[in-house]
Amino acid sequence: MMPAAQNKYKAYATVRPATRTWPDGRIDHPPMWCSVDLRDGNQALIDPMGTDLKMRMWTTLVDMGFKEIEVGFPSASQTDFDFIRTLIEGGHIPDEVTIQVLVQSREELIRRTFEALAGAKRCIVHLYNSTSEAQRRIVFGIDRKGCVDLALSGVALIRDLSAARPEGEVTLQYSPESFTGTEPDFAVEIVEAVAEAWGASPTRRMICNLPATVEMSTPNLYADVIEWFCTTVKNRASLIVSVHPHNDRGTGVAAAELAVMAGADRVEGTLFGNGERTGNVDVVTLALNLYTQGVDPGLDLSDIDTVRRAAEHCTGLPVHPRHPYAGDLVYTAFSGSHQDAIKKGFAARKSANDPTWEVPYLPIDPADVGRSYEAVIRINSQSGKGGIAAVLERDHGLEIPRPLQVEFARIVQELADQKGRELESSEIMTAFADTYFRGGTLELVDYSTVPVGKGVQRALTASLLRDGKDVVIQGVGSGPLDAFVHALGKDLGIHVKVRDYHEHAIGGGSEAQAACYVQIAVGGNAPTHGAAVDAGITMASLKAVISALNRG
Ligand SMILES: CC(=O)SCCNC(=O)CCNC(=O)[C@H](O)C(C)(C)COP(=O)(O)OP(=O)(O)OC[C@H]1O[C@@H](n2cnc3c(N)ncnc32)[C@H](O)[C@@H]1OP(=O)(O)O
Ligand SMILES: CC(C)C(=O)C(=O)O
Ligand SMILES: [Mg+2]
């Protein structure tokens, strides 16, 4: 038994904005994005990235279109320091990208940080100190004033070092770390003090980052406190309000979205949510959530697998198969009704002249992120006729008619149950061929037809093998198939009724083939299906009848 919750944990303290407007908000433009993969993501890794991996991550982030990238904590690690030097000295920072570095409010660390930044045209120095009641008491042993003084000592030094930089001023970012455990009025007090000490103004905005260092509440309460902060803090216009959600409760994405609705201008996060403990908020999900609402996210995810491979390589951590937008299984339907609806959705798209995406069960067109339709439908014992037919059509060009779909689905389900696993497309095709392209007692060797008189009647002569012996049959009918059926009845005593007939071409040009599907009844027997593929349509139709008879 777990200890009684009420004796051990207390509910999150809430603050209610005077007017709560965020629930009516819509996000109609992307926030400013800042990647913290190379800092928060990196500091949480079992094996932090070395220079090569950092460079791969950097290139990936730049290629995706991030304009602000936190590149490390240069005063804490020589690797971070050296990497930042490489970026600056190697000319790897595009003009439109600003690097950001993290530092504590400690003199020697701030001085070292500025050494790392020498030569950088534009940069953001990110100063933090923890402001929560618990950390003030437990970790720092200081009161509110001591906490403000700690922040201000850092700001004063950054201001002086920044003014002395020949390359130009830096942007200050200040984080009241553990904001979610900080009394909201104190967060406002310390941010106002920092902004004033820095000289923030509407033309020299300071980034005020409000981290859910630990995610401690439902996202609506985070949104409440963000809205309250934004409407309470003095000189809001002098601040870029940024959020930095972590994912301890599994609601980091929702928290970020509601925070933006509540007034945040900027979001810090990582690719696929790598980061401390349960991770930082996942910027890939945030960006594609926007995209699927018709909002250009400002980040390029047109080749999500390349981004994913880079992230997996750099972090050494796999992306979960069910991860939104990127997981191996997220564009796959195994279950019958989903497959059926997806197949119909794709078919409707083909015939409609409207680019709007409307395929059931697929919130995004896989092609938009560089994923293919190929993997969308996979077959196991939960699959139905629609999905099975879709696989036969997609991979083998067979457009099997509905009554045949119904019958074949039962065969595939039995096979999947018997194997106890997913079936490969080739196994489905083999099962189809074994069942419906059936050899046996009868084999069609050849046929010829000639017109009869001046009408539409045709006379057909067919050579067959019956139990290995040559037989020739002849008949007349309204077309070759009808003539063949008459010949079977007249010469072999096999009285066939064609109940259903479908044909289509597979491919085009000189390579084109014909597929034919029939359902026949012989005497009072239950109807059977047969199918055949051949270079010519008449041969395919006669062979399909023979297949059905052989199944008989
Ligand atoms: C929420 C976040 O992600 S914050 C970022 C955290 N990232 C990291 O810590 C990764 C890199 N950090 C490091 O390599 C090391 O912690 C260093 C180099 C920064 C500091 O190293 P050290 O001083 O040797 O060790 P340590 O981290 O244990 O020091 C903690 C001291 O800094 C103080 N401190 C912690 N944060 C801050 C801060 N933001 N501003 C000022 N002082 C701080 C602590 O109160 C403690 O003080 P004490 O020594 O008087 O008890
Ligand atoms: C340094 C800060 C912004 C941080 O990473 C956090 O609070 O989670
Ligand atoms: Mg963090």
Automatic annotation (TrEMBL):
PROSITE patterns: AIPM_HOMOCIT_SYNTH_1 (PS00815), AIPM_HOMOCIT_SYNTH_2 (PS00816), PYR_CT (PS50991). Mg(2+) binds at D40, H244, H246, N280. It is found in: Cytoplasm. It catalyses: 3-methyl-2-oxobutanoate + acetyl-CoA + H2O = (2S)-2-isopropylmalate + CoA + H(+). InterPro entries: 2-isopropylmalate_synth_dimer, AIPM/Hcit_synth_CS, Aldolase_TIM, IPM_Synthase, LeuA-like_post-cat, LeuA_allosteric_dom_sf, LeuA_N_DRE-TIM, PYR_CT. GO terms for cellular component: cytoplasm. Residues 439-552 are annotated as: Regulatory domain. Belongs to the alpha-IPM synthase/homocitrate synthase family. LeuA type 2 subfamily. This is 2-isopropylmalate synthase. It comes from Paramagnetospirillum kuznetsovii. The gene is leuA.
